[in-house]
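Allow me, if you will, to draw on your knowledge of protein folds for a short while. I have a record of one protein: its chain in single-letter code and its fold written as discrete structure tokens. Kindly check, if you would, that the fold set down in the tokens agrees with what the sequence suggests. Thank you for your consideration; the sequence and its tokens are set out here:
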Amino acid sequence: MEKYKGHIAAGVTVIIWATTFVSTKVLLKSFLPIEILFIRFLLGFIALAIVSPKIIPFKNWKEEFYFICAGISGVFLYYYLENVALTYTFAMNVGIIGSLSPFMTALLSRFVLKQGKLYKMFIMGFIFSLIGISLISLNGAIQVNPIGYGLAFIAIFFWAIYSLFVKKISSFGYSTIGMTKKIFFYGLITMLPVLLLSIDHFDFSRLANGENFWNLIFLGLGASATCFVTWNFSVKMLGPVRSSIYIYSIPMLTTISSVIILHEPLSLKTFFGICLTLLGLFLSEWPNISASRQMRQKE
């Protein structure tokens, strides 16, 4: 029964994460990228503080350095670049490029930390995904802008850096909520100067618009606060390998929601590009999936 709950939690999480690109795209009609980002994580931080008021105390600057870097790379830079990328290209494009973050994380882990191995299947999967992204990028029927694609690629680089910092932070022995709350805090602190420099005043009347209000609530309480809880629960119930399989559905779900909600065009070339990207992601994880199966058979 618990495993079924894990599958449900993972499914709900990826559905919400996949539609965040669409939700952000809608909000960009009325808000600047930095405004969306700040409100989103402020709401998430408040929600986490209500659930778990306990604060992780300052221990030393070395440990605090990891929290600061995680906040800058994963909360501020990753999401800010992603939001700005959405002003230049379609939500489906940013979502598909974002799905390459596991590749970037694996590459940095191997060449920077000297951890893990790059199997032949991983390299093959990486090539397939790059071909898929190229098909989408070179499709004349799709809104193509090198700035949008470039920002999306830089964003996944910072997400990979964030993942490595979080891996280190996880070894400190703190609760997941406490860690995430502290990372959110430093992310908010570092994005505040950009927010203040970008706006002269905040127009609260925009919040009276129902579409704006509910999309901000969705991003803040749903994607930023709730999803990390449901995702961590699914990892606990299913394990990291089986849970990661759900991540592969995000590009497809983002594309479907973009076409239905935003009426973004979907050509045959884009469809094949998405299929190749998904195939590449699956192939890259095949060694881990096989190892997980062998472990379950031994049990």
